[in-house]
Automatic annotation (TrEMBL), chains A, B:
Residues that, per the record, bind FAD: 75-76
Protein name (database record): Amine oxidase
Record bears the keyword Oxidoreductase: yes
Gene3D superfamilies membership: FAD/NAD(P)-binding domain
Domain Amine oxidase intervals: 56-489
Record keywords, A-Z: FAD, Flavoprotein, Oxidoreductase
One Pfam family here: Amino_oxidase
Keyword Thylakoid applies: no
Family: Belongs to the flavin monoamine oxidase family.
EC number from the UniProt entry: 1.4.3.-
Source organism phylogeny: Eukaryota, Fungi, Dikarya, Ascomycota, Pezizomycotina
Catalytic activity: a secondary aliphatic amine + O2 + H2O = a primary amine + an aldehyde + H2O2
InterPro entries for this protein: Amino_oxidase, FAD/NAD-bd_sf, Flavin_amine_oxidase, Flavin_MAO
Top-level taxon in the UniProt lineage: Eukaryota
Amino acid sequence: MSTYEAKLSKDGHVYTKRDGLVGGLNTYAVIQPHRKVRSVDEDSVWEAIVIGAGYAGLVASRDLVKVGKKTLLVEARDRIGGRTWSAEVDGTTYEMGGTWVSHVHGRLFAEMQRYGLQDQVMTTRTEDGGCSYFTLDTGSGTRKFSLQEAAEMTARAWRIFINIDGNEGRGICPLPHSSLGNVRVSFDQIKAVDQLSCRDRIDQIRHLLTADELALIESLVPHCGGGSVESISFLEMIRSQALQGYSPETFEDIWTLYKVRGGQSTLARRIFDDAVKHGLQYAFETPIKSIREKDSMVSLTTVSGKIYRAQRVINTIPIAVLPTISFDPPLSPLRREALEINQVCYLTKIHAEAEGDLRGLRGCTWPGDFLYIYGDGFCAGGRSTRITSFAGDNRGVLDPLKEPERLETALQRFHPMNIKKVVFHDWVSDPYAKAGAAWYPAGFLTKYLAELQKRHGNVLMASADWAHGWRSFIEGAVEQGALAANVVMEELGVLGANPPPGTLAKI
Amino acid sequence: MSTYEAKLSKDGHVYTKRDGLVGGLNTYAVIQPHRKVRSVDEDSVWEAIVIGAGYAGLVASRDLVKVGKKTLLVEARDRIGGRTWSAEVDGTTYEMGGTWVSHVHGRLFAEMQRYGLQDQVMTTRTEDGGCSYFTLDTGSGTRKFSLQEAAEMTARAWRIFINIDGNEGRGICPLPHSSLGNVRVSFDQIKAVDQLSCRDRIDQIRHLLTADELALIESLVPHCGGGSVESISFLEMIRSQALQGYSPETFEDIWTLYKVRGGQSTLARRIFDDAVKHGLQYAFETPIKSIREKDSMVSLTTVSGKIYRAQRVINTIPIAVLPTISFDPPLSPLRREALEINQVCYLTKIHAEAEGDLRGLRGCTWPGDFLYIYGDGFCAGGRSTRITSFAGDNRGVLDPLKEPERLETALQRFHPMNIKKVVFHDWVSDPYAKAGAAWYPAGFLTKYLAELQKRHGNVLMASADWAHGWRSFIEGAVEQGALAANVVMEELGVLGANPPPGTLAKI
């Protein structure tokens, strides 16, 4: 049980046959009242304004107020967490976006240790229960495998796919936090690999795979990177391989096994509440329309026309949403080119509550509806199963916003089931996300990543979308928020434990 | 080139035939003047006193002053870094203790990112150069292998050694930061494994190994854990395996490959200088003899009789040295029992400068002198090689303090060589270390670890010696320092960006 009270957010949807599609879900992430700004500070110049209350913004805000920087957090939504939040529906917690944690995500794990949550984890999938098998349905027939058979086939296919350097990625990506060039591999070597899409790579190794292995890698890659095998850079798969320890055996444990027991929003709340305790002021439901810098002062104009001013701004707006913000002076041509190309992740994570025990269910129906589905433990009460599914790029394929009732048919290709409800967040139609976690096409990173990471005058750009290491992960957001906050501290100065100015003379 | 000036520390020794054994080495870690305490604060009650300027103490101090806590750092030595420091000798940097870094050490890597050092790394061993082979000399004959042969034999032996659960440690230690019990493995399961010494485990698998593989595992285990195979708990080897990603292939990269280009002391200096900039006051060459708490106030008495008082103390004194400190009230019987048993790491790291190119040299002469040696790149000038060697428990075997000239004979068992100088820090005879990194005997952790981690009234105990995750690593020190500082902040309160008390009424 959480000590927080779940309140209704505008975000997320639930579908039931009885009530149809209903927008808005309860979550610990909603902040009410939505605004806390002291009247004396309202029109003052803030030391820092942080745009966005996802993990990057939360960590940056918390770090800044703790050292005494007068900070305003502005957020378009009614809740914290950005692309990571958990909904509470009839006693069951659903992770609507970013989910997984591990000690290998060092900064995120440090946050969990800081707030005493390091052991408050649970495993995402459970192997016991009924229907413990893997369905592979490629449109040209359905096969069922044991979970172990499927894991072994997937591991073999992945090893062949990733092994472009004869050393399972160690040669090309020995240092995944400096994946575009480092003490061991030159930028030029990496640039050559960055020209490959995952499709290019699959074409190189296709003859080494069985038809089933090929089908598995064709669904695994877009499940990881959210786009299509054509649109995702192979280099990003190598970086993932490196971050996961170069081994399919540890891959799942590090990437997709553990989640926060009370839901991600209970961790986000701890960071937010810590920040508020230390003086953070905030305005939710406050989308920004423009950012202007003149004479070193940054002015933000909200959609409703209110202006906030600050010495420094930490902007955590995702790459897909940045083009909706007007910048003066304008963003560099190179950055605008990058925004124009954009990231490629358009998968949709959809939860279903299915009657009975389907905890062991796994599989994919791809090409088709689902890149991957898995049983994710019982729902509250223990008589129904939470099934988590990942629809491929939903723009025109399986769109739960348009045809939520189709989900039942789609899931029944795995096993006969009776679905009680469907719970999801459609990130693609969400105006403050417009896409999922950021993954990029071939050639993008070596050309644009450094530019995306650059500051724009006194606007620091901090997002998991262009993190150094765990790009597109919660960990990457924490990295970016912490580093940006540190730059602000360095530039504005922190009094710390020094005597306040003027007091030395009095001693 | 470092921007710091290397100054002479009392720590470390250099031996040359011409000058014999000389104590004291130059390092960026020396802090001069050794004391900075404002006269008004001298006899005041500090909010926090941090004992020890190793990584735990540096991080705790930096974090505390940055949020405005009036903090005094007291350190027995004339330098920062504790059991991790780098010496500068004739233009060459020697790592005298803790050395290696990796992005998998999440908190340490975050420090490197914070100070812009994430790409300022170099690899410890180089494979090129002359003498690229591995010597295995067990006293009953010498064999030479290619580096790859030796790596493969070692990996095979390690896999068999570690595989007690049929899953290479994943079963017993899925969550190495909660290695004594977690959501997947019960404390009782772990307690059973904790009864095994590494000798017990070797006896179980001895029949599966060749004589050479057995010799390699018999030297690898004490090289990792610093004691003997009899004295080191097998459970700690499983934790190491888990932290390294369960794979001998990633083991070296994570554990022993990358070091800070300018030496560890350049990283430690950045943390220290950052703390000083934010108001840290400090007293080096100030060993403590007693810690007393009365009416919630903690008093420290230095060896020279000076008393410092604080609301909270963060004590980072290593386990082997803690018994030299008098506590009032006394430490708990259980903790005293743990201190009595103590840790087991008594290996000695010894560097030699050898003429010519011996960069590829590797090997071990064990049982005997060396658990492991490796060529570690050229010394300044490029005409001699830095050879790093690890002598087993040196109390009576190879003791460079007593017989430094014997080192040349011992190293010549690997290859004919002419040694120009020997550089080392004898941690065992060092009164402020008394041992190396902390590794423990069978049965110790499940009985004492939780007790060692406990606070003693208002004295928080923060040391890598009892860290949760990377126990005995720099990463563990950073973990402990950060967590302890956070407890102090929580308990004493941090004003942060809140209006100073009394100002609200004036608005």
